[in-house]
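Propose amino acids for all 313 sites.
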């Protein structure tokens, strides 16, 4: 947690550097940008269930390293095929933040958490991610959301947190440290990636971030596979392929394009629906049970998203 934006989309969809808006200026909300961000959220919502499937046949370190290598090979092939030039030197620090937060940090920390945590409990992290991303955006790129925006964002986050904690029985686990660490590094990576996607195509951002990690992920995959047993099953292979192609690459392509089109704070609010989508997939794919409160929570979150989308930054 699509084919609306492929890895081979032409670079012209991005905002050219010469016409890029100032960082503090909020772009107009475009339906296409909303759709792209929503497709990214849908792809991300499948990440936790797919990771749970992947852990049925791979160890946590193997799963994260192999998914990153596979995604990097796809991205690198696209970059080479289209003869995309290297990013400007000034963009490499930002790409490093994307790589550390989105390519390495978030997948590793959440995969470790899911060894001892349910997908419902892990969804608490995603419930907090929109507000955290908006906060990082305000600090990093100078965006200033309105009070109505913040009220809707906080209300939606409160609904999601209350719902997901209830789903997990209200218990805190030892995985919480991993989950909150993942929250912080992912918000930083999303913010930096959204900023870069306003001056280069979104798929270039995640593509170069993935390639940048190859000197680390290839040796890590080799070592991890030699120490952790592997059992290839339909679930484990499907889970691996989804987190590598859907979550790690294509989902981030449309997500960064959506952020570039409608702004980081507004795009991040669409993620308020992600925990609820994850719970739906958990029922369908993992056999987990939903309580009758799910439809009410979903309706409340959708209202908060609508208010946040209409609030002027």
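Proposal:
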């Amino acid at each position: 947690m699509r084919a609306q934006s492929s890895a081979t989309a032409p670079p012209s969809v991005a905002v050219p550097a010469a016409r890029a808006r100032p960082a503090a200026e909020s772009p107009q909300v475009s339906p296409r940008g909303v759709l792209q961000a929503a497709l990214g959220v849908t792809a991300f919502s499948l990440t936790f269930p797919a990771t749970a499937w992947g852990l049925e046949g791979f160890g946590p370190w193997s799963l994260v390293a192999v998914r990153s290598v596979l995604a990097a090979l796809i991205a690198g092939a696209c970059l080479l095929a289209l003869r995309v030039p290297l990013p400007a030197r000034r963009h490499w620090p930002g790409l490093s933040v994307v790589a550390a937060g989105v390519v390495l940090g978030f997948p590793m920390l959440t995969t470790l958490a899911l060894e001892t945590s349910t997908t419902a409990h892990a969804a608490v992290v995603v419930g907090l991610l929109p507000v955290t991303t908006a906060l990082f955006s305000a600090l990093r790129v100078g965006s200033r959301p309105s009070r109505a925006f913040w009220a809707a964002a906080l209300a939606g986050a409160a609904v999601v947190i209350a719902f997901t904690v209830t789903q997990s029985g209200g218990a805190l686990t030892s995985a919480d440290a991993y989950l909150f660490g993942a929250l912080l590094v992912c918000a930083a990576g999303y913010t930096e990636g959204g900023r870069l996607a306003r001056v280069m195509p979104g798929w270039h951002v995640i593509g170069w971030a993935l390639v940048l990690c190859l000197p680390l992920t290839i040796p890590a995959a080799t070592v991890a596979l030699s120490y952790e047993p592997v059992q290839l099953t339909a679930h484990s292979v499907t889970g691996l392929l989804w987190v590598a192609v859907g979550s790690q690459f294509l989902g981030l392509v449309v997500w960064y394009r959506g952020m570039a089109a409608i702004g980081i704070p507004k795009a991040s609010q669409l993620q308020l629906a992600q925990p609820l989508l994850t719970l739906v997939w958990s029922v369908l794919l993992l056999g987990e049970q939903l309580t009758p409160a799910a439809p009410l929570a979903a309706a409340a979150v959708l209202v908060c998203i609508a208010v946040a989308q209409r609030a002027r930054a």
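The radius of gyration is 18 Å. The longest helix spans residues 234-262.
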